[in-house]
Amino acid sequence: MCSDEDSRADIRDAGGVELLVGLLDGPSVKVAKQSCGALLNLAVEDEGKDLIRDAGAIPKVLTVGRKRRKEGFIIVRVWKWFYAQHEC
Question: What residues does each domain of the chain span?
Fold first, then answer.
């Protein structure tokens, strides 16, 4: 979704983080997984990490993990790995 710095900045500036975090509350596992992936791409830069954290994404990702068992477990593992690698 957003693999270069300019695209990530445009998405952040347009309120994309808040929209993606909102999708984590939906009933679709597929949409939640896609949203998590897009948020991970946006979290490559410190500004993205801060916005994602401030938008309340982390508790929502954990909730997705608890509700969605198999798919959610994978989502949570990827997020934990990412934040461990990037010292958030």
Answer: 5-85
Answer for the pair 43, 86: CB distance below 8 angstroms, yes or no.
Answer: yes
What are the CA-CA distances from residue 12 to residues 22, 64, 65, 66 (Å)? Answer: 14, 22, 24, 27
Entry pTM: 0.75
Contact 77, 71 (CB under 8 A): no
Place 18 in a pLDDT band, splitting at 50, 70 and 90: very high
Which residue, 73, 64, 62, 58, is CA-closest to 26?
Answer: 64
Q: What DSSP designation does 83 have?
A: H
Between the alpha carbon of residue 77 and those of residues 14, 25, 41, 84, the distances in Å are 28, 19, 15, 10
- Write the CA distances from 80 to 9, 11, 28, 62, 74, integer angstroms: 23, 23, 22, 10, 10
Per-residue model confidence as pLDDT tens digits over 50-85:
898 899 988 888 777 776 666 556 666 666 766 666
